[in-house]
Amino acid sequence: MTGRPETRAFLGLGGNIGDPATTMAIALRTLDATDGVSVERVSSLYRTPPWGEVDQPDFLNAVAEVRTGLSARELLDACLSTERALKRERRERWGPRLIDLDILLYGEERIAGDGLEIPHPRMLGRAFVLVPLAEIAPGLTLDGLTVRDHLSRLDTGGIDRVSNGTGWWKGTGAE
Ligand code: GSY
Questions:
Q1: How far is 25 from 60, CA to CA, in rounded Å?
Q2: What is the SS3 assignment for 44?
Q3: 58 lines ligand 1 (CB under 6 A)
Q4: Nearest 10 degrees: Cα torsion 76, 82, 83, 85
Q5: How confident is the model at residue 37 (pLDDT cuts 50, 70, 90)?
Q6: Catalytic: which of 84, 100, 126, 148?
Q7: pTM summary value
Q8: Which atom of ligand 1 is closest in space to residue 58's alpha carbon?
Q9: How do residues 7-29 score in pLDDT, each as one tens digit?
Q10: So what's the pLDDT on residue 114?
């Protein structure tokens, strides 16, 4: 408990090295066990064609909704330490990665500076973010349009849902 009112935040997860589904599941369980963070909803897992540097393996992507009493900065620190614990290695800017854990939205706040930019500046142009976000929050409004509407403007070709459900991260064998 932090004493701060709780905020609903959305996190984007992605990876394309090793076993990204397991790495992302461990990341979500680590965050859920963090004081002041509760993972409320998680999208299915999606296989997505690489954006940016296209000569690399497909990614797995997902989006999670968390309830948190942490500030945006504290939530970012929790994401970064989770990434570090998973021995993430940053390589090329748009290249392969073990796991990426990004804050997409933090309530309705707009934050810029000190290493934080929320809403995530590129999220509305990325189908690999909006497809899983639209699964768990289709009616959420951003810049006057719903997530569903933003998604309808993007090419979703090559994106496939690869989990049977949304329990893939819990480590119980349930998908
Ligand atoms: O944070 C973005 C990492 N990334 C991704 C990704 O997560 N998914 C897909 N499909 N392409 C990507 N390119 C980069 S960089």
A1: 11
A2: coil
A3: no
A4: 150
A5: very high
A6: 100
A7: 0.93
A8: 10
A9: 999 999 999 998 999 999 999 99
A10: 83
Does residue 20's CB lie within 6 angstroms of at least one atom of ligand 1? no
- Alpha-carbon distance of 73 to 62, in angstroms, equals 22
Q: What is the DSSP letter of 141?
A: E
**Using a 6 Å cutoff on CB, does residue 50 contact ligand 1?**
yes
Pairing of strands 100-106, 59-68: unpaired
What is the atom index within ligand 1 of the atom nearest the CA of 14?
Answer: 7
Task: Kindly report whether the peptide bond that precedes residue 119 is cis, defined as omega within 30 degrees of 0.
Answer: yes
Q: Which residues of 106-125 are buried (b: 16+ CB within 10 A; e: fewer)?
A: beeeeeeeeebebbbeebbe
**Per-residue pLDDT tens over the stretch 124-155:** 999 999 999 999 999 999 999 999 999 999 99
Taking the centre of ligand 1 as the mean of its atom positions, its distance from the CA of residue 14, in whole angstroms, is 6
88 noted as active-site residue = yes
Q: Which residue has the higher pLDDT, 30 or 4?
A: 30
Ligand 1 center–CA 4 separation, angstroms = 32
Location of structure tokens 């296209």: 54
Given 55, 90, 97, 110, the catalytic residue: 97
| Cα–Cα distance, 126 to 145 (Å, whole number) | 15
What's the rounded Cα separation, in Å, for the pair 69 and 80?
17
Which carries the bigger pLDDT value, residue 132 or residue 86?
132
